[in-house]
Specification:
It is built from eleven helices and eight strands. The chain is α/β, with parallel strands linked by helices. The protein has one domain: Alpha-Beta Barrel (TIM Barrel), CATH 3.20.20. Strand 6, helix 9 (195-204) and strand 7 form a beta-alpha-beta unit. The longest helix has 17 residues, at 167-183. It is elongated, with a radius of gyration of 22 Å.
Length: 284
């Protein structure tokens, strides 16, 4: 990572995100899992880069996020760190890394900061994470919360289902949001909840909300970069807007390469190294 930012470029920090909320400026977030994509997103001007445990599905071929380990997260976090200068870098705490004890959770979060270069961590869950948020913030580790549809709770929730559909469930999510804010989160991801519920939470919180499948009233939005670029296989969530179809474009490029190889069109004279004329006799 370069040591300095381009002139006139402000480093995104936790206080700056909170300032954006107060000034009603939108916050933009995307996931990244390697240096190349991290650098592209950073230079394009994204505010927050999340090294998400979604890498288990997008990069490692797991069926869900549950198998992802601390070591796998650290490998990708370090790679992303090398590509990010301006954006705030947040790392997902994987399933099992903060569930056994507060002590273990803090130790794992410290590894993300000290070894991986994370500037904040993200944890899933509502009110039951209050004490953990307090412990992490006491250790000077900024925490992003995540409520609503929490992928690490897929078994308890019975699948990837929209949360907060009735009044009681919506009120519980709002209470979770307020309790996490009181515990010290600097921002809160709202995933897979009705637009009206997300709008109410956003209006009642003083910290920024980051929506994913939660409507446009959130203070910011986040997507998995693979979904945005059309690199995923299978059905897309309803909330995803696909800006490119790289699956198709990459497949077409590979098929063209195969044809050119098989038919002798690659490489051509301009793509081959040639000896100087003075040495050409050596191979005759």
């Amino acid at each position: 990572m370069n040591a300095t930012l381009p002139p006139g470029t402000a480093k995104i920090t936790v206080p700056l995100l909170q300032q954006k909320k107060s000034e009603q400026q939108r916050i933009t977030c995307l996931t990244a899992y390697d240096t190349l994509f991290a650098r592209i997103l950073d230079e394009a001007g994204i505010d927050l880069v999340l090294v998400g445990d979604s890498l288990g599905m997008t990069r490692l071929g797991y069926a869900n996020t549950l198998p992802v380990t601390m070591e796998e997260m650290l490998i990708h976090l370090k790679a992303v760190r090398r590509g990010v200068q301006r954006a705030l870098l947040v790392a997902d705490m994987p399933y099992g890394s903060y569930h056994a004890s507060l002590k273990t959770a803090v130790e794992n979060a410290l590894r993300f900061v000290k070894e991986g270069g994370a500037e904040a961590v993200k944890i899933e869950g509502g009110r039951k994470r209050g004490r953990l948020v307090e412990r992490l913030t006491a250790a000077e580790i900024p925490v992003m919360g995540h409520i609503g549809l929490t992928p690490q709770s897929i078994h308890a929730m019975g699948g990837f289902k929209v949360q907060g559909r009735n009044r009681e469930a919506a009120e519980m999510i709002l209470e979770d949001a307020l309790l996490l804010q009181e515990a010290g989160v600097f921002a809160l991801v709202l995933e897979g909840i009705p637009r009206e519920v997300a709008a109410r939470i956003t209006g009642e919180l003083t910290v920024p909300t980051i929506g994913i499948g939660a409507g446009p009233e959130c203070d910011g939005q986040i997507l998995v970069i693979d979904d945005l670029l059309g690199l995923t296989i299978g059905p897309k969530p309803k909330f995803v807007r696909q800006y490119l179809d790289l699956n198709r474009e990459i497949a077409e490029a590979v098929r063209a390469y195969i044809r050119d190889c098989l038919e002798g069109r690659f490489p051509d004279d301009n793509e081959s190294y040639q000896l100087p004329k003075s040495l050409s006799s050596l191979v005759c």
